[in-house]
Amino acid sequence: MLHDNFTKIKGKFHFAHGKDTADFDELQSFLDESIKDCCEGLMVKTLNVNSTYEPSKRSFNWLKLKKDYLNQGMSDTVDLVVVGADHGQGKRTGWFSSFLLACWNDDLEVF
Predict the structure, then answer these.
(1) Pair (13, 53) in one structural domain
(2) 9 and 63: one domain?
(3) Domain count, the chain
(4) Which of 26, 46, 93, 96 is the most exposed place for a label (fewest CB within 10 A)?
(5) Is the model's pLDDT at 75 over the cut of 70?
(6) Angstrom distance (rounded) from CA 78 to CA 34
(7) Which domain holds residue 88?
(8) CB–CB of 100/85 below 8 Å?
(9) What pLDDT score does 81 carry?
(10) What is the value of pTM for the model shown?
(11) Closest by alpha carbon to 86, among 98, 73, 77?
């Protein structure tokens, strides 16, 4: 339905690349391609059940697959400092729900 109702605009709007597969090697190849294209990873979604996306809910219907999650012994690392946080709402009331992180800029000597 989205493809029928939206038009690509070069440099401004396009659809994410997708692939339907049950083959692990094909999935690995698609992940490798996404990382090569400087993407963070993939969203893997089951097609066997009604798997609507539900924000802030953990589910096996939608999974993030990132190179950092793979057991390859190598990953990107960054030293960050917490400089702020949001108070939680709803089920996160009484807890910090998200954090604002900063990294040190050696040239300017600021976070």
Answers:
(1) yes
(2) yes
(3) 2
(4) 93
(5) no
(6) 21
(7) 78-111
(8) yes
(9) 92
(10) 0.53
(11) 98
